């Protein structure tokens, strides 16, 4: 099967992303235009202390129209290694640094309309080492036992997709 991008044009640019019109040809020779959100890649980190508590952030998300409980995450800066981003973000959002950072895997966030690629990490052996958070982040840190987190996932109290995916990727480390 052959798919080919025939053309790609930027239709809109914003500070965080751009929207491109992508003309894609299909194996049968037909083609169609798609809108693609072109956005930088990101990381999500599952910070867990030695007592089995997970550090979450609760923050307002405009797309959800309210507060969400989620794992720390952030965008990868140009030229930055994903692991370095994870180390920086966990310090900015939780005030804790990781003595051990384990790469869990990666996934596309919403490949039907976006090219955002997520790198996922487990941060363990945490110690106090804060960085100043971004000026537009008004986050509330919450430390929750792993057992309670599993209950919250089952009862749909946690509904952030990247958080749910990272817990699935980390499952083998949680036994």
How would you describe what is shown here?
Strands 7-4-9-8 form a 4-stranded mixed β-sheet, sandwiched between helices. It has a 3-stranded antiparallel β-sheet with strand order 1-2-3, with no helix packed on it. A 3-stranded antiparallel β-sheet has the order 6-5-10. The model has no long low-confidence stretch (mean pLDDT about 95). The protein is about 20% helix and about 45% strand. It has helices at about 80-95, 145-155, 160-170; strands at about 5-15, 15-25, 30-40, 40-45, 55-60, 65-70, 75, 95-110, 115-130, 140-145. The protein has about 180 residues and is of the alpha+beta class. It is built from 3 helices and 10 strands. The chain folds into 2 domains: about 5-40, no CATH class; about 40-175, Nucleoside Triphosphate Pyrophosphohydrolase. It starts with a strand and ends in a 6-residue tail after the last helix.
The neighbouring-strand order within the major sheet is 7-4-9-8
Indicate the radius of gyration in whole angstroms.
Answer: 18 Å
The biggest beta sheet is recorded as:
4 strands, mixed
Give the termini separation: 41 Å
Mean pLDDT: 94
CATH class of the largest domain: Alpha Beta
Number of strands: 10
Content-based structural category: alpha+beta
Number of helices: 3
Helix content: 10-25%
Strand content: over 45%
Q: Specify the overall morphology.
A: elongated
CATH topology of the largest domain: Nucleoside Triphosphate Pyrophosphohydrolase
CATH homology-level superfamily of the largest domain: Nucleoside Triphosphate Pyrophosphohydrolase
CATH second-level architecture of the largest domain: Alpha-Beta Complex
Domain count: the total is 2
What is the chain-wise order of helices and strands?
A: EEEEEEEHEEEHH
